[in-house]
Amino acid sequence: MLNRRNFSALAGVAFAVLLATSAQAQNVTLRSTDIHPDGYPTIEAVKYMGQLLEQRSNGRIKINVFHSAQLGQEKDTIEQTRFGVIDMNRINMAPFNNLIPATNVPSLPFIFRSVEHMRKVMDGPIGDNLLKEFEKHELIGLAFYDSGSRSFYNSKRPIKSPADMKGLKIRVQQSDMFVSLVSALGANATPMNFGEVYSGLQTGVIDGAENNWPSYESTKHYEVAKFYSQTEHSLSPEVLVMSKKSFDKFPAADQALIKAAAKESVAKMRELWDAREKASEAKVKAGGAQINTVEKQPFIEAMKPVYDKFVTDAKLKDMVAAIQAVK
Ligand code: GTR
Q1: What fold is seen in the domain 12-147+236-278?
Q2: What pLDDT is attached to residue 26?
Q3: Mutation choice for ligand 1 from 173, 182, 217, 219, CB with most ligand atoms inside 8 A
Q4: How far apart are CA 94 and CA 41, in angstroms?
Q5: Between 20 and 30 A from 303 (CA), which of 76, 94, 183, 246?
Q6: ∠ CA(208), CA(212), CA(215), 5° rounding?
Q7: Domain ranges of the chain
Q8: Per-residue pLDDT reduced to its tens digit, 48-65
Q9: Over the stretch 134-177, which tens digit does the pLDDT of each residue have?
């Protein structure tokens, strides 16, 4: 029978358990997803974050990085991360464009003048505000990673001016903004999962796609689409997000550990990224890719309809102006 004495003893035990669980999460392994193969800079950066977290939590918190789209293609993993089925997601900004309007801005064509400009913006208050936007969508924005610059490549011909894009079938990420970007150049945009692009190029379902050096190389797309034209039209960054459901299970002190480790992995990522970009460029050249540079001005001018369509309200206009004002 539950009398007053054993009730208070029980309550005491319950409180102690509560205290223990609320003060420190015990042995949690977070599942993190990425579509890239093992060894890619994004993968290694999240592993590095996991090492920091493991050390600082005395082994209580770990990260298991599932690479090569083992947990699904990017668009599908967004929902799973929001529901807490996946704890963490390293993903490009573009698949968020339709869900979170502000994410369109750093993906916009030619919004950044250089990699340095992009890093300064994403590291500063504009980046911090954008990370907070994810919270309205059951996600915690942890950090931004680099993604270099995206350029067009295809199996038909070198692209030297917008006219060369006419009629080409170009794969894009699942983002209306990217569809509009490609359409503004007179090509036909086909949104498609990253993992389907190689066979799409091989079978002629698409003529080309657009991406940075490391992705063009790691996917071997250069084998089936050898003309890589350096339009460098988007620097759409990568983002590392966590499920709010998973994050909320941690006490505040552990949440701070997670956020700090994520931020600290950015410098590591950039170091790996810079080296990988050079290595990938050399590898695709050796593998037969035909590279050409382009005069960017006509491409920049062709992008006005994209800005008109996606930079619609005062908030987004202010964000574009604020980015342009960063020196
Ligand atoms: C890569 C990016 C991936 C993915 C991919 C794509 O550069 O790192 O997250 O967005 O491009 O084009 O689907």
Answers
A1: D-Maltodextrin-Binding Protein; domain 2 (3.40.190)
A2: 80
A3: 173
A4: 18
A5: 76
A6: 80
A7: 12-147+236-278, 150-235+280-325
A8: 999 999 999 999 999 999
A9: 999 999 999 999 999 999 999 999 999 999 999 999 999 999 99
What local confidence, expressed as pLDDT, does residue 23 receive? 58
Please state the atom number of ligand 1 nearest to the C-alpha of residue 171. Answer: 12
* Per-residue pLDDT at 6 exceeds 60: no
Residue 258 banded pLDDT, cuts 50, 70, 90: very high
Q: Do 12-147+236-278 and 150-235+280-325 fold alike per CATH?
A: yes
Going by alpha carbons, the residue nearest to atom 4 of ligand 1 is 92
Looking up tokens 């960017």, which residue turns up? 296
37 secondary structure, DSSP code: P
Whose Cα sits closest to atom 13 in ligand 1? Answer: 194
Residue type (1 letter), 23? A
Checking if the pLDDT of 1 tops 90, the result is no
Cα–Cα distance measured from residue 135 to residue 244, given in angstroms and rounded to the nearest whole number: 7
